[in-house]
Amino acid sequence: MSIVARLPRRTLSLTEEEEAAPPTMELTGRRRMTAEERGTAATIFQEFRADRRHREFVVGCLNCGECTTGCPAARFYDFSPREMLQIAQNGDATTLWDAMQEKIWACCQCYTCNMRCRFGNDIAGIISVMRELSVSHGLESTRRTLAPFGRSLTLLMTVGTQVASDMIQPDFFRDWGPFATGSDKVWQVSAEVMRKAIPSDVLQTTRSSWEVSVQTSLELFRIYEETGVLDMLRGLDPDLTEMLIDIIEERREEFVEARERFQDQLAGQTGPVTTFSG
Amino acid sequence: MLSANEIRKVVAERTAHQKGTGKRVVDVREEMERLEERGELVIHRIRPENRPVEASTLFGWTKRIPTDRLWHHKSCGQCGNIPGYPSSLLWLMNETGRSYLNEPHQTSCTAWNYHGTATSNPVALAAVAARNFHRAYETGHFPLIHCGTSFGDYKEMRKLLVENTEVRHKVREVLRKMDRDLVLPEEIVHYSEWVHAMTPEILARQRYPVKGIIATVHEPCHYYKMVPEDAVYDDAIYAGQRPAVPSGILMALGATVADYSTWYDCCGFGFRHILSEREFSRSFANLRKIRPMVEEAHADVAITSDTGCVTTLDKSQWIGKAHGLSYLLPVLADVQFAALALGAHPYKIAQVHWHSSSTEGLLTKMGIDWRTAKEEFQEYLRALKAGATPELLHPAHGEIETFFAVNKGQVLPEASGPAPTSASASAPAAVPAVGGPAK
Ligand code: SF4
Ligand code: SF4
C-alpha cells in the first residue's frame, strides 16, 4: 500500500474569515494586482515596447532553449532567459509586470545566453531594459531588492567607483574568511596602514576604489544630471537622491575655492581644467 | 560550446535570421573613420610611440595592441579588493620600461552598477566612457582597460556611439558642457592583451620556472561574450578555438594549462549577487568552477583576468568548508602570476595577502621564498605604522590633482595625419576641436 493511501481523509471548507475576505492570490499563486498597479503595468508595457532597444534586441525565438541550458541563474533560481525573451516578444502588461517583480533580478548579466542564441537576441540587454523600467517606476519589489546598495550607489554617484576597501567589513563578509580584508587582525596594523602598503598613491585610499579628483567627480555628476540618471534614482529613493545633491553641492563649493587657491599653478593650463566650472 | 568555430557558426546563423533587420557583423572601426571625416568624432589613434604589436581577433581581423604610453583605466573591484592586480601590472610596466599615467582623473565605467542595479542607462554609460576616453586623449596616453566588464562595456558603448546617431549627438551635447567632445580609441584594449603582446619581453625576464604548475583558466565572460568580434584569438593557443588571453602567457611561462568541463561558465559574480546574494555566487563558484578545476584538472592555481572573477572565485571558497568543499584553490590574475614568475615581491607587489585562499603553497611550488618575503613585509608594515614614507611604483600626484585634472605636458594626437617622430613629452597644447555639426 502506498504511503498516500494511509493518510487520513479530510474534507476542507472555508473558515468564516476566509468567506468574508476572499484570498488575494490568483490560482497561479500570483497576488492580485491593485487598480493602481494595473495602471503602472500598462504604462511600463507601453514604454517597454516603445524603447528602440526592444526592436533591436528582440529578434525572434526558435524556442530551442540554448540560452537557458547555459544560464548560471537558471541553475539556482526559478528563472529562464528563454521565458524572459518570450515575455519580451509576446507577453502582455501582466506577464511583464510579473517578471519584473523578482525574476529579472536573478540574471547575472554574464551574456552567455546572447552568445548561444542563434537568433541573435540580446537577452541580457532586454533584461536590463526591464530592470531600468522597474527602477524608474520605483517598483516596491525593486526598492526591496536594491535596499542593500545605498553605500554602493552613494559611491557610484559621487566618485564613480562602486566599492571601497572599507566596505569589506568582517561582520558583513564573514563568509569570505579571515583574510578577505587584508586583515588588520592578521597583520596587526590598521586598514589605513594596509592600504599605505599598496605601492601606488591613488590606490591608498580606504573610502573608494581609488582616489578620484574633485573635477572628475563633478563631471560625472553632470553626466548623471544630463542623462536622466538622477531622475531615475529619485524614483527609487528620493532621500538618497537629495543627500547626493547635498554632497555634490559641497564639492562644487570646494572646487570653486580650490580654483582660487591654485590660481597660480593653473595659470598656464589649457582645456577643461580651466573651463569646467563644476 | 563556445569554441571559436561554434561562435562563428552562431554568428553566421544569426546573420541569416537577421536578413532585412539591418543587423550584421561590421567592423566598427571602418564606420569610425567615416564619422571622423564628417567631423562627428576624433579617433584616438595608436601612434608609433605607443609601440603597437599586432594580434588577431575572432574573425581574423587585425587588432593593434599599444604597449607604451598608456593610460591606466583601473577597475573599481580590483582596487577595492585585490590591489595586487593593478600593482603587478604597474610593476611589469616598470620592469619592461613602459611609460604610463595612473591618475585620479578616471571614473570607473560604472557598468558594475548598471549590470547590478540598473540605476543608469545607455546614454549615461556612453557619456561616462566618452569622458574617460577624452581624458586619456588629452594626456596623449592610450587607454588600457584593466577590467573585463569595462572592456565589454566600452566595446558596446563604442559601437552604440558609432551606430546610433541620436545617442552620439546627445553624448556630444553632454560632453560639451564640460568642454570635452567625442573621442573614440582606435582599439579598445584589455590589459591581458598588453600582457599577450609583451610575452617575449616578459619571458626574457623570467626568474622562476613554473614548469609543473597546473593552471586552470577562467575566461572572463565580458572579455569574449560581449561584442565577441573584438576578443583576441591565436591559432597557436587552443588552435584558435578559445580566447588567447590570459592562457597564452601561462603557456609561454611554462605552466600546464589544464582543461575542465565548465570552462565557459561564468564565475558566479552576478554584479548584484556578489554583494547581496552571495548564496548564489558561492554555490555557483564552488560547484561549477572550483570543484571541476580541482577534481577534473588537479589545478594548483586558477588564473583569470577580471576583477569580479578573481573576487568571486577566491572569496567564495572559504565558506565551502561548511559543505565539505575544502579546496582553497589559490586564485590570481594573470599579471600577478607573471609578476611572481619574474621575481616580484609576493606581498609588496603581488599583494597576495588580500586573497582568501592562501597562495603560499603555490609560491613554494614556484620556488619563491615567501617566508623571508613575509618577514620583510611585516617589517615594512611596522615601518609604515611608525610613519615611514610608502614605497611607490610611480611618482605621487601633487595636491593640485586632488582637485584638478591638470595638463601634464601631454602630447596631443592630431585628428588625422602623420604621427610625430618623438615619443618625448612636449609642452601642453590645446585639444584639437572636433569638427562641426553632423552633415
Ligand atoms: S546573462 Fe542572465 S539570462 Fe543570460 S545566461 Fe547570463 S544569467 Fe542567464
Ligand atoms: S537561444 Fe534564442 S532562439 Fe533559443 S530559446 Fe533562447 S532566445 Fe529563443
Provide a descriptive summary of the structure in words:
The complex is a heterodimer of chains A (278) and B (439). Chain A is 55% helix and 0% strand. By secondary structure, chain A is an all-alpha fold. Chain A has a domain of 111 residues: Orthogonal Bundle (Fumarate Reductase Iron-sulfur Protein, Chain B, domain 2), CATH 1.10.1060.10. The N terminus of chain A is likely disordered. Chain B is of the alpha/beta class. Chain B folds into 3 domains: 160 residues, Glutathione S-transferase Yfyf (Class Pi), Chain A, domain 2 (Up-down Bundle); 184 residues, Rossmann fold, CATH 3.40.50; 37 residues, no CATH class. In chain B, 41% of the residues lie in helices and 9% in strands. Chain B is built from 18 helices and 12 strands. A 4-stranded parallel beta sheet of chain B has the order 10-8-11-12, sandwiched between helices. A 3-stranded antiparallel beta sheet of chain B has the order 3-2-9. A 3-stranded parallel beta sheet of chain B has the order 5-4-6. In chain B, α12 packs parallel to α16. Chain B is globular and about 60 Å long. The C terminus of chain B is likely disordered. The chains are: A mainly alpha (278), B alpha/beta (439). At the A-B interface, α5, α8, α9, α11 and α13 of A face α1, α3, α4, α5 and α6 of B. The site of one iron/sulfur cluster has 14 residues of chain A, from α5, α8 and α9.
Question: Any chance you could write out the topology, listing elements then pairs?
Answer:
The complex is a heterodimer of chains A (278) and B (439).
Chain A lengths: L15 H5 L14 H16 L1 H6 L8 H4 L2 H5 L4 H10 L2 H9 L10 H5 L6 H14 L3 H7 L3 H9 L25 H4 L3 H6 L17 H13 L2 H8 L1 H24 L1 H4 L5 H4 L3
Helix pairs in contact in A: 2-7, 6-9, 11-16, 14-16, 15-16
Chain B lengths: L3 H14 L10 H10 L4 E3 L8 E5 L4 E4 L4 E4 L2 H6 L2 H12 L4 E2 L9 H7 L4 H18 L2 E4 L2 H16 L1 H12 L6 E3 L5 H7 L1 H5 L10 E4 L3 H4 L7 E2 L13 H7 L2 E2 L15 H4 L1 H18 L5 E4 L2 H9 L15 E3 H8 L18 H7 L3 H16 L54
Parallel strand pairs in B: 1-7, 4-5, 4-6, 8-10, 8-11, 11-12
Antiparallel strand pairs in B: 2-3, 2-9
Helix pairs in contact in B: 2-7, 4-16, 6-7, 6-8, 7-8, 12-16
The structure holds iron/sulfur cluster (2 copies).
